[in-house]
Every structure is written in structure tokens, then in C-alpha cells.
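Case study.
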Amino acid sequence: MEKLLSELKVKIIEILNLANVYPEDIDENDQLIGGKLGLDSIDLLEMVMMVEKDYGITINNKELGEKVFASLKALAMHIEQHASAGSQ
Amino acid sequence: VTLQTATARRIYVAGVGIVSPLGHGLAETIESIRKNRTGLRPLTLFATGKNRGGPVGEIQGRLENPSIPRTHQLACIAAEQAMARCRYSPDAVVLGTTTGGMAATEEYLKIKERDSTYYRYHSLGSVAEVVASRVRCPGPVITVSTACSSGAVAIKVAMAMLRTGRMTRILAGGADSLCRLTYYGFGALQLIDPQGARPLDQDRQGMSVAEGAAMLLLTTDGAEDALAEILGAGWSCDAYHPAAPDPQGTGALAAMQRAIEDAGISVSQVDYVNLHGTGTVDNDLSEARAVNRLFRDKKPLVSSVKGAFGHSLGASGAIEAVVSAICISEHLVAANTGCRHPDPALELNPVAEPLKASISMVLSNSFGFGGNNASLLIGTANTFTPSVAKVGDGAMRVKGSACFTGAGDAQATLLFLSRGKSCKGRLSDGEICKGLSPAETRRLKRLPRMALSLALAAYEDSGSKVVPLSVFLGTGWGALSETDSFLDRLFQSGERLSSPTDFVGSVHNAPACQVAIRFKATGANITTTGGDYSFEQAVMVAGLTAVDETGPVLVMGVDEGHGELSALFDLSVLPGDVLSDGGGALCLIRGGNNSGFGMDCIFFQNTKNNPDIIPSLIDGLGGPESVNERYGALLAGIPGGFREKGEEQLRSFMTLSGFTNPVIDYRRFTGEFAAASAVAAVMAVRLAQKGVIPGPLFGGKDFDLQGRGVLILGLGEFITAVGVAQ
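After joint prediction, the assembly is written out as follows.
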């Protein structure tokens, strides 16, 4: 889980182009959308694409998206639960 | 600096053309509405890697002319229908579109086609140009791209042009074809309903993308058998978010209120509202709030036709103007197809089945990405008192200016120019983003960054304490980096992955929307596009429509040079040349004291079907004497792709006007990019303010303007004149 969380922090900073934000600045329990990082619905969907691309997991509706991206921890847990065997 | 109070003029819908998933032509469309048919079916136009689900509004049957892209074909079909009974050519064509030749372009980019001839019809502006050529229009050809309100915005622009009394008939409307960019883009935003759009339904999940075109022949010339009259139009910007509507519907409400004010009628006279009603959760809720705020006591009939037609983006506003005209002429209210259980939260009762009713006034809403809203009021012909609307006439005063070239900002550019040095090239990202915060630019690529920076710099230069409320932005090619990034990722992943950020950023009106959000500019937010004349279109539309402004108005032109796409799309950009880009922004003010230089788009005509265009130009400028008295210098814009033609036009202008003052061939300094004329406008302002044209710019001695202004000519396919004078 720790490894996955660190990995996600780096990915999020990169894909969302979060200048001046470092992995240690992100608290995995914080609200992810509408929280300190200044992320909104478009960022959420950008992360949906990343999760599909890198973990092979589809998140195709708003309700599920809101649940999965409630916090970084929720996202990591969702990925752990749904990652198909053999994927990264 | 006058605002003309126009003679009240009726604007008739004298002819209409429509092609949509519900049929070709008026008769088939009426029949489909009457039978409550739906045009939503599974997509067949292109194969999808992984079907993201949801039917689309695809036009059935083969189109006839594969030599032009699908959007162009649809627009031509609608145009020919609209003009079928008219003996004259229209004085202007105004068209709204968001995809232009994208359906064809993506096919070629997918196979990495590098021959630029395949991309000849890529630009949004080329749709209106092809239409203009078909209907032999010698006048202005204007393309607006304000996402899903484009078709309605085009009709408002045409109205403003007709109200000046200088034109009699204008062909206006919108067109868009299905393509991967929008299909996957809306998919990435999770705005597609897998069951097909169910506007206003409690279980709605999104829209259905569609295609189509509608063109309306609008005329002030007493049309006895007119289908309807356009009574008024209003627009606004949410200035809230690049893709989501303001949840309270404040912008939507403002657009409706402005349309009502423009028509000079009262809210209670509206019989029916043709809703934007896309079927997305957020749009329908926000729009319902706006409608409920406007119609407090007596609610009119309401319905959205997007469950039947789908959402044809830039065409939808024009298609729904036709649906509104049908409603009036046929006494037929279209059903809110697809809605089974109206969402109680919306507090609206959509028309469930096609309804026979005597309707004399319709309010038709169109809202788009970037919070670009427009509403049209359409009524029974010769029934209501025509509105005495204000019309913009004459120049607005320049209060501030800013530009970017390869040399740097306006100051650096002027310094280079005064030494006769080239300003070609692309300014570094660091220079462009000076003054912008990382949070503000993190999702933006080159074009919106330049636009935002330029707008802020022009505003700062103006010294105004009042922020601009309206933004008019011309761009020849839009956000190329975002478009390239979106398609690249899509094709690399076998059409599996598409970036919502890139999609939202790829629309032509995204940069103007960023400017609006920054300034909270809730007035007009209009993006014009038409290759090398995009900025001139913005100046023209601003001049015509920015009539109620007490504060400054931003008018700008900007284009990015893209390593791959610029040379494919813009025939003035050659692969060996120094890739150049930039733009200019002006902070203009209407009224107030008359100090400073004024700016105005004085002339805009099509060279096609127009043999006497140069004499017309000189006439438009007030004759040879006036040209020489008024202007001490000429900035000539000759796009590289039309070098010979442009030089010939310039020679002809010099001969016929007897102009002997300095002439500056400015693209030799700026390099080739569509918005170079916006840089020229800023140069013109700064040079006029200094009062001297530096010798090295034209190969002579420093030239004293003696209080005269500077004329900016656009040459090539169109001829335009923008004057900067006292």
C-alpha cells in the first residue's frame, strides 16, 4: 500500500502538472478534489484516464469516481482491490 | 465614437436550410418533429477502438461531395436550401462551428500524412468560406466558435450587421460533423448517456453527440412569406469554469434577459422556451434554475429537442432556431424526446408529446463550454414592434495595448522594429508566463497562456481601474498543442485513452474563456476565426456589438506556432521558415472622452466574386484624398501563401489611392502566423502614439506622421482595413 501511495503521488504531480508540490506535501487522507491541491472535476477525469492506462481499471461514472477519488488512500485501496493479477 | 440608435428594423427569416439526423430540409424535419422521431442510433461513421457507448445523432446516407470535409458538406447542403428561393447573393456569411475539417484531418493525422494539401480544409473558417463561394458572397465571411453556442452567436452577429442598415441579407447559421475529437472528448468528460440523451429526465446521464447544419437567410427586406422574425438576441459568459456551467445559472439567466431587453419585449410574452437541455446532469439543473428565476409566475412551455436531434455542438443553436421558426410557422411545439420521468428537482414540465399550439414567441437557448451563452428570441413575423436597438458604429478608443513576438513584449518588439530587425521566432514559455501563477497555467498550453498574458498586459497598460467585461478574441488555428496532444494520445492508445484536459483546452474559445475567468468578465465572450483575418473579425464583431459597455473591452488576436501542425494547416508557414507566433491585445473603450487613437474595422470583403474590390476598399476608406489625409503610414499584411496576389493588390491600392506615405510589409518582420495582424494593430497604435515611423522599417528616413493615423491592410484571400486614427 505504501509503495502504491508513493507511486500515485508522483504520478498525480506529474499528470496534473502541480508545480511546487512534492510527494511529501500530499496527505493521503486529505480530500483530493476541492481540497488543498486545488483540483476539480477535470483533474478527477484526468486521473481516471491515468488509472485506466496504468492499472487497467475503468471508472466510468460520476458516483463511482467521487467515491474512488475521495482521497488518495481511497484511490489506492480501490486500485489494490481491483487491479487484475499480473498488472503493475 | 458614436453609438448609432438604429432605425427599428425587422429581421426576417426568409429562408432556412437544415440537415440533421431527423432529415434533409424543412419538410422532413417538420414531419420528424410531428411524429416525435428520434435520430439517435449507433455510430457507424468511424470505427471506435472501444465503444464508449451511447448512440449518436449521425446523418444517414452518403453525402455527395467527398472532396470537402463532412462539416463543409453539411453546411453547403443547408446553405443551398436556405438560398433556394433567393435571387440575390447574401451580403455576408456568418457561421458558427467547432470542428471545421477535423473529421478529415484526424483521418490523415492518424496515418501520419505529411502532405499539407490534405489539410486544406482543416480550418474552422474554411467552412464559411466554402459556403460563401457557393452562394457567391462578395462580403464579409465571419466564423464564430464559442463551442455549443456558436450557431446562436452567429445569428446574433448577423443581426447586429443587419441593424446597421448597411446590409440587406445575410446567410447565418452553424455546422458541425461527428468526429473522433468530440466523440472521445465528451466521452472522457463522462458526459455521454449510454442510453441516449434524456434531457430533463431524473435518470439522465448525459448528452448524445450529433452532427448537422442549419442556415438561415436573414433579411431586412420585407419578406412577405417569412417564416418568422428574429426579435432579439443576448449573450453572456459565466466566467466560472472551462467546462462546467455556473450551478446557479446566472450566466444563462443574463443571456436570456439580454435577449428580452434587446427585443424590447416583456418576459410574459414568451410562449415557449426551446431549452439548451443537453441531458447532462449539470447543464439541465443550471438551466432549469435560470429559467425558473426568469419566469417566476407564469411559466411558458419548455422542451429540449436534443433527445431527438442529439447535440450537434456548433450547429445546434442554428438547428434550434429553425425548430423555433417551425414552432411559429407550423404551430407545432417539439416534444422533449427521451424524457420519461421529469426530474422533480428541475421544477419544469417539459412538453411530453408534440403539441399543436399557437405560439408567437420563442426563446431559444444555447450554452457552451467556457460558459459561452447565447439566447435568441424568435417571433411571428410583422407582429411585434421592432426593437430600436443600439448599434455599434465607428471606432472605439484605444486605452491600452500589448503584444508578443519572437522579440519579446511590445516594448522589445518596437525596439527591434525601430532598428529594422526581425521579430520572427517564438518567445520562450518563461517569458510568456511572466506574471502568471503556476496554479493558473498548470492545465494550459501555449495559446491560452499567451492569451492570458496578453490580456493582463493590455489591461495593465490601459491604467483602467474598471476591469473589462467583454472579450473578443480572434485566432486562426486555435489551440494546436492541446489538439495535437489529444489526438496523439488517442491514436497511440489505439483509440482507448483520451485526455479530458486536452479536450477542454482544444476548443477554439478556451483561451478567451480563460481570460474571462481571470477578469470575471461576464459580458460578451466571442471567439472569431478565419485564418489570417481572424483578428479583423474580432475587431469588427466587437465594434458592432459592444454597445452597452461602460468599461473597457478586450479585443485580441493570438496564434501559436506548432512544430508539426502549423506547417500542415497554414499554407503561409513553410517547413524551412523560422517558426513564429504571438499576438496582440487591445483594451478599447466606447464613449468617454475622445482622447487617444480610435480603432475600427472599416472594410472586410471577400476577393472571390468581387472584381472591383480595390476601388470598393478606397471608397470604404472615404476616397483617395481621405486615405492620404487620414493615414501617414500603411501596414500591409501579405500572408506568405498569397504573396503574389497580395503584392498585386497592394500595387493596385497604391496606384488607385495615390498613397505615397511609408508602407511596411510587416510579415517580413513578424514572421508568418495568422494573428500577425494583431501584432500589426499594436504596432500601429504604438507608432501613431509616438508620431514617427522609424526609417529602417520601410527603408527610408524617419517619417513624421504629423498627427495622422496608421492604416492596417489585410491582403490575400480577403481584403480588410483596420484604421488607427485620431
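Observations recorded in class. The mean pLDDT of chain A is 91. The two ends of chain A are 13 Å apart (CA to CA). We will return to this complex in the next lecture.
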